Amino acid sequence: MAKADQIKALIRCHAEGDDARFYAVAMQVAAQAARSGHGNFAQELRELVDKAKAQSKADTSAQSSRPVPLAQPRGELAGLLTVSYPKTRLTDMALNEPLDKQLDRVILEQRQRERLLSHGFSPVRKLLLIGPPGTGKTMTASALAGELGLPLFTIQLDGLITKFMGETAAKLRVVFEALAATRGVYLFDEFDALGSQRGMGNDVGEIRRVLNSFLQFLELDKSDSLVVGATNHVDLLDLALFRRFDAVLEYGLPTRDIALEVVKARLALLDTSTVDWEAAISSAMGLSHAEIARACEQAAKDALLNDTTVLETKGLVAALDERRTMRRKTI
Ligand SMILES: Nc1ncnc2c1ncn2[C@@H]1O[C@H](COP(=O)(O)OP(=O)(O)O)[C@@H](O)[C@H]1O
Ligand SMILES: [Mg+2]
Predict the structure, then answer these.
(1) DSSP bridge pairs for 167
(2) Which of 152, 155, 221, 311 could form a disulfide with 145 if both were Cys (CB 3.0 to 4.6 A apart)?
(3) Cα–Cα distance measured from residue 189 to residue 260, given in angstroms and rounded to the nearest whole number
(4) Residue of the nearest CA to atom 19 in ligand 1?
């Protein structure tokens, strides 16, 4: 039977979380029991140890493939990025077929990344999203995080540059260190800040330095995180940028079919049986996904505030036209 010092050792190992030693002592007890003729007890003990070992191994490997929950960035990171845990899915988005396929592929490669890596291939993970405002670039980053169950970290580059003039490159290093430490989707939003601020009265040297260090960090980055750059102004960006990304995804204004998809999704809770979709969609042409979605919300609210859940074509067209007028004013 176990001696007093063995029992004490077991308790100490348990308290210190030293599993390896804990099992070693238990096996010693089993060996001793076998020697003193308690064969059954020894056998039971060995089986228990084997089972416990297998269990704890399964737990730790499940843990390491799970994203680390990071409630809020602390210390220096706090001022550099914001975190969220989006529930957005790809099916929430109205996307043209090429984009839909590209994003499906990114998600598939990420889901199968262990298999790809074990054969020496890297899953696609550095993405540059380009296209006009309101077409779903920021939303895509959320959808990637939502699909993969990863946290979404957003870095607002223009804020970073103005806030930390002179030390932006050092701050970028901190961000890239976080990116290597915690797997997630890292969105460098409004990426054009790096391009467009050049020659606009800002410190050109600083912007250049920041862009160069971003490219270097991006190149050196061998982490498991997804890096997503999003920009509205592709013409302002350096060609050097494109080469450092694994894929460039192009967003555009919705076609008639896509516009109809956005409209129907937004109005799903209303009675739209009398809506003339052709007329409504004609009014939606030229607007972005975001503008169409907003117009639909406006029309839906107008109907509800008028005490009806029936949406009329007139109201929808009026809301869409209003958006178009707002757009003209802002340009
Ligand atoms: N492709 C899309 N499908 C469905 N809704 C969209 C799409 N693109 C934009 N939206 C709507 O417009 C909002 C703003 O879009 P966002 O992703 O911020 O555009 P961007 O980053 O390209 O400027 C989204 O939160 C969503 O409600
Ligand atoms: Mg955006």
Answers:
(1) none
(2) 152
(3) 28
(4) 134
**Domain of 322?**
256-330
Q: What is the pLDDT of residues 138-174, one digit of tens each?
A: 999 999 999 999 999 999 777 777 777 778 788 888 8
Distance CA 139, CA 254 (A): 15
Tens-digit pLDDT profile for residues 26-38:
888 888 888 888 8
Look at the block and give the residue holding tokens 């029992």.
7
Give strand pairing partners of 153.
83, 186
* Residue ranges lining ligand 1, Cβ < 6 Å: 93-95, 133-139, 230, 251, 262, 289-290, 293
- Tell me how long the chain is: 331
Contact residues for 12 (Cβ-Cβ < 8 A; gap 6+)? none
The answer to whether residues 192 and 113 belong to one domain is yes
Same domain, 287 and 161: no
Residue where a domain stops, chosen among 23, 47, 65: 65
Model pTM score: 0.76
Orientation of helix 4-16 relative to helix 19-35, angle to 10°: 160
